[in-house]
Amino acid sequence: MALYHGGFESDLETGKATEPHNGENEGYKIFENIPEIDVFLTGHQHRRLNLVKNKTAIVQPGHKGETVAEVIVDFDKEKNGKVIINNLTTKLLETKGVTPDKKIISLMTELDKKTQNWLDEPIASLSQAAPIKDAITGRLKGAPFINLIHQMQLYFTNADLSATAIMAEDAGGFSKDVTMREILLNYPFANQLALVKVSGADIRQIIEHSLSFLDKDKNGKVKFKDNVLKPKNLLFNFDLFYPVHYEADISRPEGKRITKLTLHGEEISNDKFYHLAVNNYRALGGGFYPGYGMDKIEKIYDQDYVQLFKEYLNQEKISVDVQKNYKFY
Predict the structure, then answer these.
(1) CA distance 291 to 86
(2) What pTM was estimated for this model as a whole?
(3) Quick one: the chain helix, strand, coil %, rounded to 5?
(4) How confident is the model at residue 272 (pLDDT cuts 50, 70, 90)?
(5) Are 211 and 258 contacting, i.e. CB atoms less than 8 angstroms apart?
(6) Strands, DSSP E only, in 109-231?
(7) CA angle, 131 as apex, 163 and 308 as ends, to 5°?
(8) What single-letter DSSP state applies at residue 10?
(9) Are strands 273-279 and 192-199 parallel, antiparallel or unpaired?
């Protein structure tokens, strides 16, 4: 049995690549090269998978506990100790509507009450709130909360520029008195902050990749492509950049959409090198971004983002930047 926090980079039936083979997901490679695996428990992609292929049971149970994967192994054990598998079956059991166990609820009630109180205690105060109206609009139109993430990343790294995604679709940003609940709801992943050294040409590639998530509707309004919203929302891979000022014409071909890209009033030079602050997942190429790689990472900070937020928000005189520095048209 193999438990792998990763998914499949190729179609399990045809072997055809379904995403770049950059090491983020290597389930198909494992499946092909280790036929001795009888049960293969996978994750990361948040897909719903349950099948038996080439005498291997394969499951992936979606996300946020929506299902529990069940694998039944029917086997016999011979006198010499060898196990003979007769049959494998897989199933995804829906958790919606299942009545919680009363004994567990009873045991957890007091702890849950203390936890809720802890989550709602203010841990820092800002000079002003840093909201985001909603995740989709915030990405397209800008939001103080997005700028605050950038400001925090630049504070710890002293980088030239910063890249970040909105990590939660129900993100509301921070009120003036920030609570631990707000931090966890707005940044639910245990990422670490990284400092990378990239060329101006890399930066253009990186931004162009992010711009490839965008399209225009029949009325010429900028929107996100349907295939990045369904069947799975992939917008945690859509990055925004700061304090560079950049503009993009979404009617142009992908890879050639940037019409303006300056840093402190100067054009980003393809041949010049810059320091970029970004989370470690992206620094390793997560989300299939070009321009990144292990050889470009100069430092990965020990704290996760929750710890970074706690430390940064308790600094004095944090002035939230409310200006928008990009334009999609």
Answers:
(1) 48
(2) 0.81
(3) 25, 35, 40
(4) very high
(5) yes
(6) 122-125, 130-131, 161-165, 173-174, 177-179, 192-199, 214-216, 222-224
(7) 50
(8) B
(9) antiparallel
φ, ψ of residue 241 to 5 degrees: the values are -130, 150
Q: Amino acid letter at 44? A: H
Map tokens 């990590």 to a residue: 167
Q: Is the peptide bond before 231 cis (omega within 30 degrees of 0)?
A: yes
* Three-state secondary-structure class, residue 200: helix
Q: What is the identity of the amino acid at 178?
A: V
For residue range 277-312, what is the model confidence (pLDDT) as tens digits? 999 999 998 999 999 999 999 999 999 999 999 999
- What is the C-alpha to C-alpha distance for residues 210 and 169, in angstroms, rounded to an integer? 17
Q: Among 302, 328, 174, 168, which Cα is nearest to 241's?
A: 328
3-state secondary structure 259-309: EEEEECCEECCCCCEEEEEEEHHHHCCCCCCCCCCHHHEEEEEEEEHHHHH
User: What is the CB neighbour count within 10 angstroms for residue 128?
Assistant: 13
- φ, ψ of residue 60 to 5 degrees: the values are -150, 120
Q: Is the pLDDT of residue 316 over 80?
A: no
- Unique residue bearing structure tokens 């100069």: 298
| E-only strand ranges, 65-183 | 67-77, 83-94, 122-125, 130-131, 161-165, 173-174, 177-179
Unique residue bearing structure tokens 């198909």: 28
Measure the CA–CA gap between 236 and 103, rounded to whole angstroms: 37
For the chain, report the end-to-end CA distance as a whole number of angstroms.
Answer: 50
